[in-house]
Here is the input.
Amino acid sequence: MIGGEQETFDKVRPVLDAYARCAERIGDVGAGQLAKMVNQICIAGVVQGLAEGVHFAKQANLDVAKVIEVISKGAAQSWQMENRYQAMIDNEYEFGFAIDWMRKDLGIALDEARNNNAKLPVTALVDQFYGDLQEMGGNRWDTSSLHARLTKKKAE
Here is the structure.
């Protein structure tokens, strides 16, 4: 997600292609930062939905792994589901993108939303949930620890 002049992007493209799976110019200077905000906004809602789904499945005494295996073949499928459901099942959150970093990013997005009059009610709510996890001592936990907030369990 890159913002800048097309000519500059074209010059650095070979270097980016050497290490990036995907490098795209989104627009002028600043567009890459805005695209990163969109990414974090989308992730926040998806991870919260996954946390609630895993929590619900556990409370219903379902085989959570089997449920995820089935629903990940349909419309519910996401990278977060495929890569973070097991952490939620196991209450292991000591890896990945830290809550402190996510709150920084969501704060930037929420500030920009106030500037451009975007409505982000789910993002604001999930940001508060991450604040709850920080109060539980989870500053460095992975963002999938939203599940721990529902169960009020500290990461193991």
User: Anything to note?
Assistant: The two ends are 35 Å apart (CA to CA). The chain has a mean pLDDT of 94. Strands lie at 2-3, 25-27.
